[in-house]
Amino acid sequence: MSNITKAIQETAEETRNYLKSYFEKQKTHTKLFEAMEYGVFPGGKMIRSFLVKSSFKTLGIEEKLYLPVAAAVECIHSYSLIHDDLPAMDNDDFRRGKESTHKAFGEYTAILAGSSLLTLAFEILTDPKTDFTSDIKNNLIYSLATSSGHQGIAGGQFMDLSLKKQNITKESVIDMQNKKTGELMGFCTESAAIVSNQDNLREKFKNIGVKIGLIFQIADDFLDKYGDKDKIGKPVKQDDVKGKNTLINLLGDEEAKQQAQSFLNEIKQDLEKFLPKSEELISCAEYILNREK
Amino acid sequence: MSNITKAIQETAEETRNYLKSYFEKQKTHTKLFEAMEYGVFPGGKMIRSFLVKSSFKTLGIEEKLYLPVAAAVECIHSYSLIHDDLPAMDNDDFRRGKESTHKAFGEYTAILAGSSLLTLAFEILTDPKTDFTSDIKNNLIYSLATSSGHQGIAGGQFMDLSLKKQNITKESVIDMQNKKTGELMGFCTESAAIVSNQDNLREKFKNIGVKIGLIFQIADDFLDKYGDKDKIGKPVKQDDVKGKNTLINLLGDEEAKQQAQSFLNEIKQDLEKFLPKSEELISCAEYILNREK
Questions:
Q1: CATH number of the domain that B165 lies in?
Q2: What pTM was estimated for this model as a whole?
Q3: What is the ipTM of this complex?
Q4: Nearest chain B Cα to A124, which residue?
Q5: What is the nearest CA distance from A77 to chain B, expressed in angstroms?
Q6: Residue A158 structural domain
Q7: Would you call A108 and B88 a contact, using CB atoms and an 8 Å cutoff?
Q8: How far apart (Å, rounded) are the C-alpha atoms in residues A28 and B151?
Q9: pLDDT-derived band of residue B105, with 50, 70 and 90 as boundaries?
């Protein structure tokens, strides 16, 4: 196993443990709560958590501080997956190698579990035990909220569903992917600038995450087109079946690959001056482009 | 028109204008955004906004400060109504005298509009232009998030849907109503203690709102059983049709009325020492019990 794969796995384990202890404190044992746990655990690769951690490292922030931010991000990400899988949305029966939440718990429980994970993210960040100043908590929440709502994840999912059957341009696919994936990944990297109180770096770091989001999405499109469903944990060739607008459909394989490579080069350039502390964040971007699942 | 009805209407108008100007700043013109506006405007009576305003008055807080809190609460309330109406939940076609959001915009748009209103509430509270200290913003968000998630609104809705066909006790119906309605109304009244930095009053003020929530719910049950659908703006006798657990079904009309009256007496006692500044909050609780729509 490569160093970066191992580092990502370790981070996922740390974030999972942090989330688990947070869940244990919630003192509730309803089916709704079980559905929330089902949707968030064990989680996928938790790439977003690693983006937070390696961005914190890049800016020299004390390591463990990344955990509440990563935990909040994983809650938001899991919320979006649970809702995306709903019959009224993408109607996907499988996710992360098991039944999607609405298949396992029913539709209304899945909707409520998703929304509860969304609010839990804000609860985690404002928890009195979460060790940031109130100013930092506020900045994190404002940025996370805008990244998650109609100008972020929800807006991207709306475009993904509603633009399906229209003539579509490269620009609107990029806009959709930026909202759907880029905004939250942008928050992951921006959070390091927020927590280290470097306002001047917020936009730069946000953009790095947004670009990583586009790389992630192009790699995802390739995996859907050419990948192995057993490795990925969900059916492949679904973009075609569902008539999804993808960058590789619009640009062709070669141009999409070149586009992703050029984003990666930009990211490397942006992070060069933070070397060697930015090494892991750069490796993560490379990993995201070249992953096989 | 009575003074209290007029005061409630004026507050609704103020909150609506505040929300409108916030929406206008969002610089987006998607169908998703239209669905958010459709779900939140013109809104109902906005009783929750009045609870915030009259609680602020009770604790002598500068009046206009209530607006961002009220606006956030109305976003959360509208989110919960949009999702509650979904086919997978209560399957209601009408709300506030017009088609419910999923009837007017389709199901996926309604789900995304609801979630976007949920995140917008947190965005409003952390907005740099919102005039509270970061400490206050944090306390507001922590309390609002817990009131909205699995221990609050979403948890109550889950109980409402899942307990339908089981043997049910008075205690679990009260628990369900407290989560579904009481927690958010409790936040409305508690917010005044948060904003005035009176931690010692938070629990007391939260409980006042929770009790108002129970009064609200009992009055709602009566309206559903005996009310006029044209006045209310939605079909009546739905609790029976849908096999909903209500307090009047469990207790009978007389005991439910007595219960509501005894909550009202408790509230009056709690607020006595804040007279005359607590007059409007008391009148609001009375109005909620005796309203005809």
A1: 1.10.600.10
A2: 0.95
A3: 0.95
A4: B142
A5: 13
A6: 3-290
A7: yes
A8: 8
A9: very high
